[in-house]
Amino acid sequence: xxxxxxxxxxxxxxxxxxxxxxxxxxxxxxxxxxxxxxxxxxxxxxxxxxxxxxxxxxxxxxxxxxxxxxxxxxxxxxxxxxxxxxxxxxxxxxxxxxxxxxxxxxxxxxxxxxxxxxxxxxxxxxxxxxxxxxxxxxxxxxxxxxxxxxxxxxxxxxxxxxxxxxxxxxxxxxxxxxxxxxxxxxxxxxxxxxxxxxxxxxxxxxxxxxxxxxxxxxxxxxxxxxxxxxxxxxxxxxxxxxxxxxxxxxxxxxxxxxxxxxxxxxxxxx
Length: 270
Ligand SMILES: [Zn+2]
Known about the structure:
Elements: H1 6-28, H2 58-62, H3 77-96, H4 100-122, H5 127-140, H6 149-177, H7 181-184, H8 193-233, H9 239-265
Helix pairs in contact: 1-3, 1-4, 3-4, 4-5, 4-9, 5-6, 5-8, 6-8, 8-9
This protein binds zinc ion.
């Protein structure tokens, strides 16, 4: 292997292992299942899973997605999440090289991935990801190349407050337009507290302007992709999934988007 591939390669392999953990945490934290000896037993036949059947992606392929003992289907989610986090980590380390910023970016994107799974499956964003993530975001802002603690604290505060207001306003609007709609969906608010805490975590990683970009992109995506679906099928919107994608885009291309906006829309010279 070429030396230039060593760092992204190692980061990718670590990312695969992190994906394995994300699969476990994102599906156990929301429903308060214990995280003891993660993934060591088949949920169907309780057979102990041997180490060679527990290798990210590879084992799933070798076993063709079935338990070795009882042939229960292992969800496609497992290899897909492992592969995604592996590629994300490899990509970030390829961009930033072996650095604090690469670590910060990888942690951020992996947290977003874990939150998306929880939200998509259970409509819950566990505090372990959002509050734990905020602490990580604040701590990692000190790393070389990081956004600095002032931006991180500011981003977290603005993220929380901003989404709190959006949630309050959204609740009022929905109650006005279609009374009883929220009650029907078993909700008392337009947006869960999970989304609000998630945005605090996003802010701690991308700062105040990042919060604005993430909220804008997330709402836009939610409206375009999920709005019609939710209206037609009366399904809840896992808004956290859109916020996660928006947060990732903001982290990766936020500065470029802001430059483009300021030059082309606002007419300011860069
Ligand atoms: Zn089994």
